[in-house]
Write a structure and sequence with these properties.
Layout (H helix, E strand, L loop, with lengths): L17 H11 L1 H23 L6 H17 L3 H16 L2 H29 L1
Helix pairs in contact: 1-2, 2-3, 2-5, 3-4, 4-5
Length: 126
């Protein structure tokens, strides 16, 4: 007897904390904050790609990339992305390859949505 395979919809809202960007603006000034936010977005996009393709990376290097992603996401208020990256780190630390694979996939989806949410926010502000 075969079991049916479920096809689940992956629809998560990417949560953004605008207070983080406001604090960055207060701390650094608007121009510097904008530069740092853009640099963080570039770093996030690069790290998401490295984490997605990171099957051949040693665990220590993979974990370092996840930690860098958490820091960059936290810096600019990408709350959901930071939380899911923390979940990836937990799966890595527990040595659970099945959960790690699923959580890495989720990280990719949330990362893409988070980046689009920031650009959509920027389009509305301009």
């Amino acid at each position: 007897m075969s079991r049916p395979v479920s096809d689940l919809e992956h629809d998560e809202t990417a949560r953004f904390d605008p207070a983080r960007l406001e604090q960055l603006c207060r701390d650094k000034g608007e121009a510097r904050a904008e530069t740092e936010a853009a640099e963080a977005l570039d770093r996030i996009a690069r790290l998401l790609g490295e984490i997605s393709d990171g099957d051949g990376l040693p665990q220590v290097r993979f974990a370092a990339r996840v930690e860098s992603l958490i820091a960059a996401a936290d810096k600019i208020g990408m709350a959901t992305l930071a939380r899911v990256a923390r979940d990836v780190r937990i799966c890595l630390d527990r040595g659970d390859p099945v959960a790690l694979a699923a959580t890495r996939s989720r990280l990719g989806r949330v990362g893409e949505r988070s980046i689009h949410a920031i650009f959509d926010l920027d389009d509305r502000i301009v």
